[in-house]
Write a structure and sequence with these properties.
The complex is a heterodimer of chains A (about 180) and B (about 180). Chain A has about 180 residues and is an alpha+beta fold. Chain A has five helices and four strands. Chain A starts with 20 loop residues before the first helix and ends with a strand. Chain B is built from ten helices and no strands. The longest helix of chain B is centred in the first third of the chain and has 22 residues.
C-alpha cells in the first residue's frame, strides 16, 4: 500500500443529515409499548405504593406526621414568591442578580433548578379575580428537586427572597 | 428552558430508568441525530434501513440502561449500541458481504468526481463496512475479522482497495490495486 492510500477522513459522512420526523414517533411507539418499559413502570408504581403505605402506617403508629416520604428520585418543587421582600438590596438589579446567583449555586448539585421573574403586568382570565383583594402579586417562580418536604424547606429557606423576609409558597409537583 | 431540559445526561438517564417519558423525549432529542448518522453510516446511506437500525438501538438502549456504568458517557454508549445493531444487520446479510465485485465498487461507479457520500455509497457493502470500522471507528483488523466473520487478511486487503477506490471516486486519481 502506498503512503497516499492512508486513512480516509469520514468524519463528515452524513453529518449534515437530519433524522426524519417520523423516526421519533416510531421510536416512541416501540419504546413506550415495550414490555420492559411498562413492566418497570408497574413495578415502580407498586414499589412506591408499598413504600408509601408502609411509611404511612409507621407514621400513624408512631403518632408522627403522615406526609409521604421520598422514594428513589427526588420530587420537583416549585417556590412561588410574592411581592417584594422587606429587606435585601434596594436595587431591583441587585435582587435579580442575587436570585440568579442562587440558581447557579443550586445547579452545581441540582441541574434541574430553574427560576423566572414574572413581569408586573398580569392578565386575569375568568372571574372572580384571585388577586382583587389587594394581596401581593406573584413575582417569581423557581423549580428545583428535593427528596422530601424537609429538604425542600431547607432549599427554600436559602432562597434570597425568603432570606429577605419576603412571602413565598412552596409546592410539590405531583409526580 | 424547563428543569428537565437543563438536566445533565446522567440525571436524565436516572429519570429514564424510572420510566419518565418526558426525560426520554429530551434524551432522544439530544442524541437523535448522532444515532441516525451512525445508523446511516452503517447501512451505507439507505434511509429506511437506517431508521430500522436507529429504532432498534433506542429500544436496546432503554432495555439495557441499567447496564450503563455510573460516570460513563451516554453518547458514546448509544453510538456503540447503534454500531452493533448495524453490524448485526450486516451479518444477517452476510451473503451480500461475501459476494463483492472484484474492484470493490458497484459497476455503475463512474470515474467522475463525486462527493464523499456518493463515493462511500458506491463501494460494495463489505468494503464500505471495513473502511468505516477501521478509518472512522478505529477497529483493528482482528476485531473487524471477528465482527464480520472474515479473515484478518481479507479485512486488510478490503481496506486497501476501499481506500483506493474512494480516492479514485473523490479525486479521479488512479487506483492502487
Amino acid at each position: 500500500m502506498t503512503e497516499s492510500n492512508g486513512p480516509i477522513d469520514l468524519e463528515r459522512l452524513y453529518a449534515e443529515r437530519e433524522a426524519p420526523a417520523s423516526l421519533r414517533d416510531a421510536v416512541r411507539g416501540r419504546v413506550f409499548s415495550d414490555a420492559s418499559w411498562s413492566r418497570r413502570s408497574a413495578s415502580l408504581t407498586i414499589l412506591r405504593a408499598v413504600a408509601a403505605l408502609s411509611l404511612f402506617v409507621a407514621g400513624y403508629v408512631l403518632g408522627g406526621r403522615t406526609s409521604p416520604a421520598p422514594i428513589g428520585a427526588p420530587d420537583t418543587w416549585v417556590l412561588f414568591t410574592y411581592g417584594a421582600s422587606s429587606r435585601g438590596p434596594a436595587l431591583e438589579e441587585e435582587r435579580v442578580a442575587a436570585m440568579a446567583s442562587w440558581i447557579r449555586e443550586r445547579r452545581a448539585s441540582d441541574p434541574s433548578t430553574t427560576g423566572d421573574k414574572l413581569a408586573h403586568a398580569r392578565y386575569v382570565l375568568g372571574t372572580p379575580d384571585p388577586g382583587a383583594e389587594g394581596g401581593e402579586r406573584l413575582s417569581g417562580l423557581f423549580r428545583f428537586a428535593a427528596a422530601d418536604e424537609d429538604a425542600a424547606r431547607r432549599v427554600a429557606r436559602n432562597h434570597p427572597h425568603v432570606q429577605w423576609g419576603g412571602r413565598a409558597e412552596l409546592r410539590r409537583i405531583e409526580p | 428552558m424547563s428543569g428537565l431540559e437543563a438536566g445533565s445526561d446522567q440525571w436524565l438517564v436516572r429519570r429514564v430508568r424510572q420510566r419518565d417519558e418526558g426525560a426520554f423525549e429530551i434524551l432522544y432529542g439530544r442524541y437523535e441525530r448522532l444515532v441516525y448518522t451512525t445508523a446511516l453510516r452503517m447501512v451505507g446511506g439507505r434511509g429506511s434501513e437506517a431508521e430500522d437500525v436507529a429504532q432498534e438501538a433506542w429500544l436496546r438502549c432503554v432495555q439495557g440502561l441499567h447496564r450503563l456504568k455510573k460516570g460513563s458517557a451516554f453518547g458514546a454508549w448509544i453510538v456503540g449500541i447503534t454500531r452493533n445493531c448495524g453490524l448485526e444487520r450486516l451479518r444477517r446479510e452476510r451473503r451480500s458481504l461475501m459476494n463483492e465485485p472484484d474492484d470493490g465498487a458497484r459497476p455503475d461507479s463512474a470515474a467522475e468526481r463525486v462527493d464523499l457520500e456518493r463515493a462511500f455509497e458506491a463501494l460494495a457493502p463489505g468494503f464500505r463496512t471495513v473502511l468505516l470500522l477501521h478509518d472512522l471507528y478505529g477497529y483493528t483488523h482482528g476485531e473487524i475479522a471477528v465482527q464480520l466473520g472474515i479473515a484478518p487478511g481479507t479485512s486488510k486487503s478490503q481496506l486497501s482497495r476501499a481506500r483506493s477506490r474512494m480516492r479514485h471516486l473523490l479525486n479521479g486519481s488512479p487506483t492502487d490495486d
